[in-house]
Design a protein that fits this description.
Number of helices: 11
Distance between the termini: 64 Å
Largest sheet: 13 strands, mixed
Strand content: 15-25%
Structural class: alpha/beta
Shape: globular
Number of strands: 15
Mean pLDDT: 89
Order of helices and strands: HHHHEHEEHEHHEHEHEHEEEEEEEE
């Protein structure tokens, strides 16, 4: 018979995990809308930079009744302000990648358990139980700096998986270890490192999903995605290249199974805005700036206007089509200015 302290600790663990069930049990548009509006009103009051931004817009939070009308915080504010509304000191500060001279975004995370549940449930939803595959991470530029949310995610997923590990620049050891692994495998790599591996070794990978994340990070010339994926498919002997879409400012990820079309977990949603009028929504299949709602961003801001250009399709999936240049932005950023 289990001891009382064990039963009590297990009960407390279940209660702790259950406090996020309202986010991760969303199963309909109506439930998403309800949770998004509740979180919006909370963050409009408790997240100081967001509250000030909303005030400058002249928006009254209680008058917002549709997800489409929720103001999106310009992502640049994560560089210049402390975007945080947690009740306690943050457990972690994730930072964005940045080349020399660039200011990094800082994402203050109030509860790492929320982030861990988000990326684990998201991964399991798209790829099955993480415990039944091996994850090999080729993320040199991320490992070489501190504060990477991607490294944190990969580290926890690898620990929960059947095998795999991190590999900095030792491509031969990576390929040797993968060849001895009979589990289904995922090779998660920053784009330039996957291209280096393809050009220098051209290994045909068996029973492996190749997933690219990030980009060239200034290490190589940028290539169109179609050209890049063609090179990688040919070198690795796979039919398609998967992709992960995430960023330091988000606690959830979207995934593409190929062709650059991304899908989000049920607690994350992408909208498209007119770059000439950041408060105007565009219908599906029209190109504009991407706005992201990530309900896992409970302690920062869940409503973010990114600098990515893209298209949202009728089923909620989306495609990335580059970045917004300064010349494209003719709307009002208020706090950023």
């Amino acid at each position: 018979m289990a001891s009382f302290p064990f039963v009590l600790s297990f009960f407390l663990y279940l209660c702790y995990m259950a406090k996020y069930d309202e986010i991760f049990s969303i199963s309909s548009d109506a439930e998403f809308e309800r949770e998004a509006l509740m979180l919006f009103r909370y963050q409009a009051e408790h997240c100081a930079p967001y509250a000030e931004y909303i005030r400058l817009l002249g928006v009254e939070p209680r008058d917002v009744s549709r997800v489409e009308d929720i103001p999106m915080l310009p992502i640049e504010l994560f560089k210049s302000h402390k975007v945080y509304c947690g009740e306690a000191e943050p457990q972690m500060i994730f930072t964005s990648s940045a080349t020399t001279g660039m200011v990094q975004s800082r994402h203050y995370v109030g509860d790492l358990a929320l982030y861990e549940r988000s990326f684990t449930e998201g991964f399991n939803h798209f790829y099955g139980d993480v415990r039944e595959c091996s994850i090999y991470a080729l993320l040199p530029s991320y490992l070489e700096r501190e504060g990477s949310s991607l490294v944190y995610m990969a580290e926890r997923l690898i620990a929960a998986s059947a095998g795999g590990g991190f590999y900095l620049n030792d491509y031969e050891k990576l390929l040797r270890d993968m060849s001895r692994d009979d589990n289904p495998k995922i090779l998660l790599g920053v784009t330039y490192a996957l291209l280096d591996l393809a050009e220098n070794y051209a290994p045909h990978l068996e029973n492996t999903v190749v997933m690219e994340t990030g980009g060239m990070k200034g290490r190589r010339k940028e290539l169109p995605k179609s050209e890049l994926h063609k090179i990688l498919c040919s070198a690795f002997g796979v039919e398609r290249i998967h992709s992960e879409y995430g960023m330091a400012e988000l606690l959830s990820q979207a995934y593409s199974f190929g062709e650059g079309v991304f899908r989000t977990p049920k607690w994350m949603r992408v909208l498209v805005r007119d770059v000439n009028d950041p408060f105007a929504r565009l219908a599906p299949n029209r190109r504009g700036g991407l706005d992201i709602i990530d309900l896992a961003n409970r302690d920062s801001c869940a409503f973010i206007a990114t600098q990515d250009m893209g298209v949202r399709f009728e089923d909620g999936s989306f495609r990335i089509e580059g970045r917004i240049s300064n010349s494209d932005i003719r709307g009002c950023n208020l706090l950023v200015q």
